[in-house]
Specification:
This protein is mainly α. The chain has ten helices and no strands.
Length: 212
């Protein structure tokens, strides 16, 4: 693997973004909107809690971490989609670029783009809603590491779906974070999204059906 080949993918993405405001704004606009929206929701929920429980680190922190995963995934897929939309794969296959070098270029591009969104989210959450990452302690490091690796995996999965099924399969990629989120405990403990809990709660013989 040659680092120059990998950096060429990153450099191509940089040139695309430098000349297009429509590619730059989504890096932080949607992340900022999510933080502001959920930040006000957490403030609203705090006004109904008399026990002193603070929704900001639990709910707003979950939104921030999950948004980070989404930005990482989209960083991979958007770089890949640029080649799909511009029909550039013929040029890539004609070069000496290997698959591993191309994937590494997608990952590095994702690191750069997701870092921009992460910085914006952290600044807004800290300045406007008082979210302090000190409450998470050292666990914040494995949190971000696991989310980063999962985002990269989902991005590669989405790219492989489009590569296998064709450009129309792009619409299978965008809902992936929404489909995964109910089963990974983003906003609630994992025991509440387990299969056993769903069967007991929603099934015909569950706890809500006394006449079964």
């Amino acid at each position: 693997m040659k680092i120059t080949h990998t950096l060429a993918i990153v450099l191509r993405q940089f040139y695309l973004m430098r000349g297009s405001l429509s590619r730059v704004l989504p890096l932080f606009v949607w992340a900022g909107i999510d933080i502001v929206l959920w930040g006000f929701i957490t403030k609203y929920l705090n006004s109904f809690i008399s026990s002193g429980f603070n929704f900001v680190p639990s709910l707003l922190g979950a939104v921030l971490l999950w948004d980070f995963l989404i930005r990482v995934m989209q960083g991979v897929t958007m770089t890949f989609f640029e080649d799909v939309w511009s029909r550039n794969f013929l040029n890539i296959f004609a070069t000496a670029l290997s698959i591993s070098e191309y994937l590494m270029g997608l990952v590095l591009s994702s690191i750069a783009t997701s870092s921009i969104g992460l910085v914006v989210m952290v600044v807004l959450a800290t300045a406007l809603f008082g979210l302090s990452f000190l409450v998470y302690g050292v666990m914040l490091v494995p949190f971000f590491l696991v989310l980063f690796m999962c985002g990269i995996a989902l991005g590669i999965l989405g790219s492989s779906m489009v590569l296998r099924l064709g450009p129309p399969a792009e619409w299978f990629v965008w809902p992936i974070p929404a489909i995964v989120s109910p089963f990974v405990g983003v906003f609630y403990p994992l025991e509440y999204c387990s299969f056993v809990y769903l069967v007991k709660t929603l099934g015909p013989c569950g706890s809500r059906w006394s006449g079964c």
